[in-house]
Specification:
alpha/beta; Oxidized Rhodanese, domain 1; Rossmann fold; 2 domains; Rhodanese-like_dom; Rhodanese-like_dom_sf; Tellurite resistance protein TehB; SAM-dependent_MTases_sf
Length: 290
């Protein structure tokens, strides 16, 4: 057994123990025959099209690939530090098997994450909606490549997901197909003056990393009484660290609280991303009596 295989195994084992995500870029059929436990499989040829399945940038990864150094450089270019990149071998597979770290079949690992406001508040909101006997019906506006919409569907919501960019919607369709889940993907220009949201149809409305101020006053109308608004986007000060720099895409302190004063505000806080950019996270509930 080569020292290279022993070295690779030692890094894989220590990385797994430390919770470092493992990304396996080999072909799907090869992956199914044998892979490192808790690895996500995205064939290298599909990586760009399926990049919405990756964890947030600046997440350190362990990479397994046919051409490990080339793959590692591509990921570093996307702001993913790579702890180690290794090629698969029979010897490495044997070491993983002996350690109980070898698995077979398809990958069921999820490395991508929803918006923080969803991750932190959805469970409590879901319980509240069920106690109120409201349907779990959500809309994700400016849904992008669909991670938040898929996360809502994974949590039992019937989801409508809207975005102007059809290529992003297609990535959402692709992501949902791996579970599989039903999401109503709709191409819509939500900044157009003719855009209308259905009235009182949703128990949850979610917006992340999108700001179009003329739309804000109309969002609450789409919520049924007792429904929740979850909003997360960049705040003034983000321009000091990078994009967005245009003030039209940056929330002012207290702006959402003022716009949605008729709602019961549950959470309203500016927090910082890892790169320093401030993000406004906001949760409010529509009053039943309104």
């Amino acid at each position: 057994m080569s020292s290279q295989d022993s070295f690779a195994f030692a890094w894989l084992r220590s990385g797994l123990q430390a919770g470092v995500p493992v990304l396996d870029l080999r072909a799907a059929e090869v992956f199914r025959a044998g892979h490192c436990r808790d690895a996500l499989n995205i064939p290298e040829s599909e990586l760009f099209a399926r990049r919405q399945e990756l964890p947030p940038p600046n997440t350190t990864l362990i990479v397994i690939a046919d051409h490990p150094q080339q793959a590692a450089q591509a990921l570093r270019d996307w702001q993913y530090p790579v702890q180690i990149a290794v090629a698969w071998s029979v010897e490495l597979q044997s070491l993983l098997a002996e350690a109980g770290l070898l698995a077979q079949g398809q990958s069921s690992v999820r490395l991508w994450q929803p918006s923080t406001v969803l991750a932190c508040h959805l469970e409590a909101i879901k319980q509240t909606l069920m106690q109120q006997q409201l349907p779990l019906r959500a809309i994700d506006l400016a849904c992008g490549s669909g991670r938040d919409a898929v996360y809502l569907a994974l949590n039992g919501f019937a989801v409508t997901a809207m975005d102007y960019h059809t290529d992003a919607l297609q990535r959402g369709v692709s992501l949902a197909s791996y579970y599989p889940l039903q999401v109503d993907w709709q191409a819509a220009d939500i900044e157009h003056e003719s855009f209308q949201l259905p009235s009182a149809q949703f128990s949850l409305l979610h917006v992340a990393r999108f700001l179009y101020r003329p739309l804000l006053p109309r969002l609450a109308d789409a919520l049924m009484p007792g429904g929740f608004l979850l909003y997360e986007t960049f705040a003034v000060g983000a321009e000091k660290f990078g994009s967005p720099r245009n003030p039209k895409y940056l929330l002012q302190p207290g702006e959402l609280a003022q716009v949605f004063a008729e709602l019961d505000i549950i959470f309203d806080r500016i927090e910082s991303l890892g790169d320093g950019r401030p993000v406004q996270r906001f949760v409010a509930q529509k009053r039943v009596s309104s």
